[in-house]
Amino acid sequence: MSDQQQSTTQAFPSSDQQQSSTQAFVKKTAAQRKLYESGNELAAYAAKQINYHIMGYYPITPSTQIAENLDLSGARGEHNIRLIAAEGEHSAAGICYGASAGGGRVFNATSANGLLYALEQFPVQSGTRMPMVMNVACRTVSGPLCIKGDHSDIMYLLNTGWIILFADDPQMVYDFNLIALKLAEKVNLPVVVAFDGFFTSHQKQKCMVFSEDETVQHFIGKKLSCDNPEISAFAGNDSTGENRFYSVLDLNHPVSVGSYMNEPDIINNKYQLFLAMEETRKKLPMLFDEFASLSGRMHTFCRGYLCEDADIILFLLGSSFHPATVAADTLRKEGIRAGVVTLNVLRPFPSDELRHLCMHAKTIVAADRQDSYGAGGGNMSLELRAALQDITDSTHPIRVLTRIYGLGGKDFFVEDAVALFREGLSPDARAFDYYGITPGTTENCPQPQYYAPLTKDRQSPGVTTCTFDPATGKMLVKGGLIKDATAMPKRIAPGIGTCPGCGIPVNLNLLLKGIEGNVVFLFQTGCGMVTTTAYPKTAFRIPYIHNLFQNGAATLSGLVEVFEERQKRGEYPKGEITFIMASGDGGMDIGMGSALGTALRGHHLLLFEYDNGGYMNTGYQLSYSTPMGAKSSTSHLGKTQYGKTFFHKDMPQIMAAAHLPYVATVAESNPHDFIKKAAKAAAYAREFGTAYVKALSACPLNWNDRPDTERKVIAAAVDCCYFPLYEIERGITSLSYDPKKSHKKIPVTEWFSMMGRTKHLATEEYKSVADQIQAEVDRRYERLAACAEHPLL
Questions:
Q1: 7 neighbors 17 (Cβ within 8 angstroms)
Q2: How high is the pLDDT of residue 401?
Q3: 304: part of which helix (H) or strand (E)?
Q4: Which residues lie across from 545 on neighbouring strands?
Q5: Could you tell me which of 617, 582, 629, 621 has the C-alpha nearest to residue 87?
Q6: 621 bridge partner residues
Q7: 396 — pLDDT class (breaks 50, 70, 90)
Q8: What's the rounded Cα separation, in Å, for the pair 631 and 702?
C-alpha cells in the first residue's frame, strides 16, 4: 500500500481523500454488487443481511419504508426477522428493549414525533447497556404538523446515551448499519443511524452492497449471550475480545435488569456509560479500518472537503454536504478559498477531529437544520463553538456565524450554499440569523373568513330532536330523514383534497347532518386532517383544533373541561356545544390509551372513528383494525406470509367495556340509521358523558377497489356481519339491522372478493385462512345477537 493510500486510515485524513464515502480502498476482500436504491431501502437491505431477531416498529413518515421493505423481503423468505407492529412508538421502543434484554439482536426505525413519543425509553436502553440499532429518517418535529425533513428530531437524542452516526448519502446508510451493530455489541450501547428524511431516505443512488449475507454476518460476528448453553460465564469481555451479554433468559444465572438505584450507585452507573462512550472513540476508528479493508470504503468521524487551506468553511450535516462541495468549487474559481465540513458521528462528539479540520479557517458558517430556541444557534453550532474554544492559537481567532436553514424540508441547492458562503465573507454579517425565510403577508393569516360564521340557529334546522325517557332509560330520536338532512349547513366545506371515493367526507357529513347546534371539532392526525387544513386555508366552517394521533381525546377533554369551568365562573356565555373528536387512519391504535382514559373519566364529548382499516396517511400499513389476511405494505403476500396474521380489533366492544352511556356502529349504506345515531350520540355526550360512534370508512386507493362502488362494498361488510350495525345504550345492546333475519347474509369471502387487498382470501389457496375469519366473524356476531336478546346486556 502506498503512502497516499495508507493516509486514508489515519486519524485525520485529508479532505481530498474524504470527498466520497464510496472512495475506493486498495484491497477489496469481499464480493459486492451494485444496487440503485434509496437510504430507506438500503437500511432494510442491511437489516435483512444481518438477519436481526426482532424489529419492533410503528409506521411514521419518512422512515416507514424500512419496515415495509423488510416485510416484503420477509414474505419472500429472505430473512427470519420477526416484525412486531406496535400500537405506537413508545411501545415499539419497549418491544425492542425487552427483546434486547432477552439476548436478541434488535432493530427499529422511526422519525420526528414518533421519536419524541418514545423518548423516555431511550435512556432506559442505554442506561442498562442493552445494544441495538435504530434508524432515524430525520424529520420536522411538529407542531404545526409537517412531515418534511430537517434535524429537529435527532437533536433530542444527544443526551440519551446513544451513539449517533449520521449518514449523508444512501451508501453510508448501508455501511453505517453494518458498522453500528458491531459497534453496539463491542461497547454495550445502542446506536442510531440517522439520515435526512426524504433526501437521503427516499432519493436513490448507485450503491455497493455485499453479495453474500454471510459476508455481513461474519463481519459482525456471533453474539455471545450468557443464556446460550455453550457459554457458562457471565457477560463481559472474554479472552478472545468478544463481548458476552447478560440475558433475562439466563435461567442458570438469574439477573435483575433495571434495578432501583440511589446515590452513589446512579452516578457510578452514569460514569460507566460515559466510559463506554469514551471506549467508542477508540473502537470506532478500528471498525472503520476493518470495514474499509472488507468493502473498499473508508469512513471517519468527520468529513472535510478542501479544508487544508480554506479561509472560510461551511459546516453542516447530512445531504447538504454534497451541494455545499459544489459551491466550494464555484467559489474556488473566483479565488476564494472555501471548504466544507460535516460530521459522520454526533455521539461521541468528535471535538479533536473537528478542530483539526477547521483550525486554519478564519470564518466558519455553521448551518443548522434545527434551532435550539433562545440559545443563539442549533445544537451542532453550539457544540462546534465549544470545540473551537480549545484551539490555543490566540493570534488566529475563528469567527463562527450561525444560520438556521432548511426547516420543514426546504430544499438546499448549490445556490443556497454559495449564498451562505457569501454571507460569511461579509465583515458585517450577524452572528446568528435564519436563512431562507419569507416575509409574512395578510394573505397568510390563519383565519381568513371564506364563509360567514355558522350561528347556532343556522346549525339547528330541526333535522333531529332528542329527548331522554327516564322510564325506559333511553334517548328518543325523531327525524333524521335524508330529505330533511339537506337543510343542515355543511360544517366542512366541499372541495377538500381527499382521493376519489374516500369515505372520510361521506362519513363526517353524515355524522354532522344529525347533530344540531354549535359544534367544536378536533381531528387527530390522518388523511382527514391533512386534506382539510392545508395552510393557509381550512375547510372547517366551525372551530377546529388538531393534535397528534396519540393524544387527541385527552386534548379535547381539556377543551371540554375549560369550557365548563369558564361557564361556571361566568367568563363564557351559557349555552351548549357538542365537542367531537374524529379519529381514523389507525388513530385508535396509537390513540387508544388516550381515548380510553377520556372515556373512563367521562368527559362530555363524542369520539367518532372512521375506520378505514389501516395507517392510510403513511401509505397503508397494517392497523389493528385491518382485516386478518388483508394485504398491506407491512403485511405482504408471499411464500411465508398470507397478509395480516391476527384478527381485527373490535373497538366498539372495547369502548363498551368502559361502560360508556352510548356506543354505536354506523355505515354509509344505512344513512337514516347513521343520522339518528349521530343525533343520539351527541345528546348522550352533552347530557351524560363520553359517547363513541364507529363507521366503516372506504379507502379505494388502498382497498384496491372502485370509488364508484364503495357504498356496495360497505353494505357487503354489513351483510356478511364483519361490521354489524348495533348500539349499546346505557349498557343494553340492540341490533339495528340483522342480515340473517333480512335474508341478506352473505359469506365474508363475498365481501373480500370485492377488494384487491383481500380477494386472494376468496381463492382455494387461502381457504383455511378464510375459514378461520368466517368462524371468528360468526362467533362475534352470535355473541352480539345473544347480548341483544338478553335484558341486561
A1: yes
A2: 97
A3: strand 302-305
A4: 522
A5: 621
A6: 615
A7: confident
A8: 9
| One-letter amino acid of 526 | G
For the chain, which residues make up each domain, given as ranges?
28-224+261-295, 302-434, 464-789
- CATH number of the structural domain 302-434: 3.40.50.920
User: What is the identity of the amino acid at 218?
Assistant: H
Pairing of β 312-315 and β 338-343: parallel
pLDDT class of 244 with cuts at 50, 70, 90: low
Give me the chain's average pLDDT, please. Answer: 91
464-498 pLDDT per residue, tens: 999 999 989 899 999 999 999 999 999 998 888 89
Short-list 118, 134, 112, CA closest to 198: 112
pTM score of the predicted model: 0.90
Cell of 738: 340483522
Answer yes or no: are the C-beta atoms of 310 and 356 closer than 8 Å: no
**CATH code of domain 464-789:** 3.40.50.970
CA 715 to chain centre: 33
Handedness of CA 638, 639, 643, 644 (dihedral sign): negative
Q: What is the pLDDT of residue 23?
A: 45
Distance CA 786, CA 793 (A): 9
Would you say 412 and 376 are in contact if contact means Cβ atoms under 8 Å apart?
Answer: no
φ, ψ (nearest 5 deg) of residue 61: -70, 140
Question: Using the 8-state DSSP alphabet, how is residue 615 labeled?
Answer: B
**What crossing angle do the helices spanning 379-388 and 351-358 adopt, rounded to 10°?**
80
Asked if 703 contacts 500 with a C-beta cutoff of 8 angstroms, the reply is no
Class of domain 28-224+261-295: alpha beta
Q: List pLDDT tens digits, range 3-25.
A: 332 222 233 344 343 444 444 44
Predicted confidence (pLDDT) per residue in 540-598, tens digit: 999 999 998 889 999 999 999 999 999 999 999 999 999 999 999 999 999 999 999 99
Q: Give which of 548, 661, 559, 526 is closest to 594, Cα–Cα.
A: 548
Question: What's the first-to-final CA gap in the chain, in angstroms?
Answer: 82
Q: In 3D, which of 690, 594, 674 has the Cα closest to residue 88?
A: 594
* Nearest to 339, CA basis, from 316, 309, 299: 309
Distance CA 271, CA 269 (A): 5
Cell 377543551 maps to which residue? 559
Which one-letter amino acid corresponds to residue 639? K
